[in-house]
């Protein structure tokens, strides 16, 4: 596990706020501003989405932000260029989230090497099958000290969750439902039963809950079952509002925290 992630979960085992944003949205060069403003407003962990033209797990909000980001000219090389000096300005843990196809086109080893070089701590690739990771990529991730973060859902069997736990070295992304991101119903009773079940498994990796976390109530509910929660679509929407980026970020984060 990267030292930054390890330190974060040791210092803050509960109530951790993670935020997802799409690189290149609303504007191509907003990446650094968004990172620094989120940190300034007390966010603990950031997930930076690498936009892709066919994002399976993403709901309409994040899909739309991906489309805009791609139109704006966001690419993996561009993102790495933007992150080049980020570690001189912040030590907040950074996780890149995206799909396998663009990473393979860039070159998986080259991607891992570059991610490590700019100070990325972990990678989430939801469409990379576990078996393929083990056979083809595990050694690379370990070589470059990148945490590989896997998703589990209410449908994931216990044996698979335990296998994922043994292969993980950061945190486990607990998807709150089997639907796409951005659905904003409260955390349903069946989700609660699933969180409880996972919690009773006493996994070695902390869990962070994502999908459907959009306000103070859903954030706090999720935090009772896991180390923290991830807010994506609701934050991406907030970036779209009238007003300056720093103001929008501040008011949104305050609405979750206060």
UniProtKB/TrEMBL annotation:
Keyword terms of this UniProt record: Amino-acid biosynthesis, Aromatic amino acid biosynthesis, Lyase, Tryptophan biosynthesis
Superkingdom: Bacteria
Pathway the protein acts in: Amino-acid biosynthesis; L-tryptophan biosynthesis; L-tryptophan from chorismate: step 5/5
Protein name: Tryptophan synthase alpha chain
GO molecular function: tryptophan synthase activity
Signal peptide: none
Active-site positions on this chain: 47 (proton acceptor), 58 (proton acceptor)
Subunit structure: Tetramer of two alpha and two beta chains.
The family this protein is said to belong to: Belongs to the TrpA family.
Functional note: The alpha subunit is responsible for the aldol cleavage of indoleglycerol phosphate to indole and glyceraldehyde 3-phosphate.
Gene Ontology CC terms, in alphabetical order: cytosol
């Amino acid at each position: 596990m990267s030292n930054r992630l390890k330190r974060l979960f040791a210092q803050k085992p509960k109530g951790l706020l993670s935020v997802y944003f799409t690189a290149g949205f609303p504007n191509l060069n907003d990446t650094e501003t968004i990172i620094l403003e989120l940190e300034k407003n007390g966010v603990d962990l950031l997930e930076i989405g690498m936009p892709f033209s066919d994002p399976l797990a993403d709901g309409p909000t994040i899909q739309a932000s991906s489309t805009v980001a791609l139109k704006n000219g966001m690419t993996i090389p561009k993102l790495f260029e933007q992150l080049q000096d980020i570690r001189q300005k912040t030590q907040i843990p950074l996780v890149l989230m995206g799909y396998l196809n663009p990473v393979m086109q860039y070159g998986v080893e080259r991607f891992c090497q570059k991610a490590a070089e700019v100070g990325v701590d972990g990678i989430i690739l939801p469409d990379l099958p576990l078996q393929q990771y083990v056979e083809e990529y595990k050694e690379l991730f370990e070589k470059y000290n990148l945490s590989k973060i896997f998703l589990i859902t209410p449908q994931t069997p216990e044996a698979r969750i335990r296998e994922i736990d043994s292969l993980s070295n950061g945190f486990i992304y607990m998807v709150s439902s089997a639907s796409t991101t951005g659905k904003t119903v409260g955390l349903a009773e069946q989700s609660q039963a699933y969180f409880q079940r996972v919690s009773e498994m006493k996994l070695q990796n902390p869990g962070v809950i994502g999908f459907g976390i959009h306000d103070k109530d859903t954030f706090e509910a999720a935090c009772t079952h896991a180390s923290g929660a991830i807010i994506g679509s609701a934050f991406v929407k907030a970036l779209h509002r009238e007003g300056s980026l720093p103001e929008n970020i501040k008011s949104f984060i305050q609405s979750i925290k206060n």
